[in-house]
């Protein structure tokens, strides 16, 4: 017996990823302090052209968030964001180990936390990979565009599940 709600499974995944990337990308793109801090972090990591890369990452995160929320070009956007997560995993979170929670020490105010590990990177990659495989689903711009010839030129060749 087929679950009639199964086609809607990509919707909460798209919404969560869209919100997550918007929250992380917005300060990098629209806050001078957030952008400068991100450029400084990239520079400290030895990334070449940290100013340029900071802009590229910020645009990818905010633009990708908007596209995921709208359900537009979910496959290509997911691929780009997977690449970004792999780079973040390798450069920033990998050396910290798996666990997202690292208590560095305890003060009278409570535990103090260090840099998170790559657990969330893998979670984001898994969700984005699922979206890459199943696409946007119903209630998406991709679905509406696939149904019309003039939407993207693919209309009659894109299966209804795309």
Give the key terms.
162 residues, two-stranded antiparallel ribbon, 63% helix, globular
Explain what the structure shows.
The chain contains seven helices and two strands; from the N terminus they run ααααββααα. With 162 residues, the chain is mainly alpha-helical. Helix content is 63%, strand content 6%. Strand 1 (103-107) and strand 2 form a beta hairpin. The chain has helices at residues 10-30, 32-44, 50-70, 74-93, 119-134, 141-147, 149-152, and strands at 103-107, 110-113.
Unreliable segments (pLDDT under 50, ≥5 consecutive)? 154-158
Radius of gyration equals 19 Å
State the strand order across the main sheet: 1-2
SS-derived structural category: mainly alpha
The main pleated sheet reads as:
2 strands, antiparallel
Compressed to H and E, one letter per element, the order equals HHHHEEHHH
Anisotropy-based shape: globular
Strand content: 5-15%
Report the span from N to C terminus.
22 Å
Q: What secondary-structure arrangement, pairings included, does this model have?
A:
Blueprint: H1 10-30, H2 32-44, H3 50-70, H4 74-93, E1 103-107, E2 110-113, H5 119-134, H6 141-147, H7 149-152
Antiparallel strand pairs: 1-2
Helix pairs in contact: 1-2, 1-3, 1-5, 2-3, 3-4, 4-5
Brief summary:
The chain is mostly helical and 162 residues long. The protein contains seven helices and two strands, in the order ααααββααα.
């Amino acid at each position: 017996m087929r679950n009639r709600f199964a086609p809607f499974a990509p919707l909460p995944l798209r919404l969560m990823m869209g919100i997550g990337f918007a929250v992380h990308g917005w300060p990098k793109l629209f806050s001078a302090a957030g952008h400068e801090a991100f450029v400084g972090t990239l520079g400290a990591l030895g990334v070449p052209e940290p100013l340029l890369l900071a802009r590229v990452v910020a645009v990818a995160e905010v633009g990708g968030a908007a596209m995921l929320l709208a359900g537009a070009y979910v496959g290509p956007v997911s691929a780009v964001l997977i690449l970004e997560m792999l780079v973040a995993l390798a450069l920033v979170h990998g050396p910290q180990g798996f666990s997202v929670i690292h208590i560095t020490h305890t003060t009278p105010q409570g535990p103090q936390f260090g840099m998170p590990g790559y657990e969330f990177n893998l979670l984001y990659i898994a969700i984005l990979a699922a979206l890459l495989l199943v696409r946007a689903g119903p209630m998406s711009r991709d679905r509406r565009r696939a149904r019309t010839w003039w939407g993207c030129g693919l209309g009659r060749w894109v299966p209804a599940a795309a």
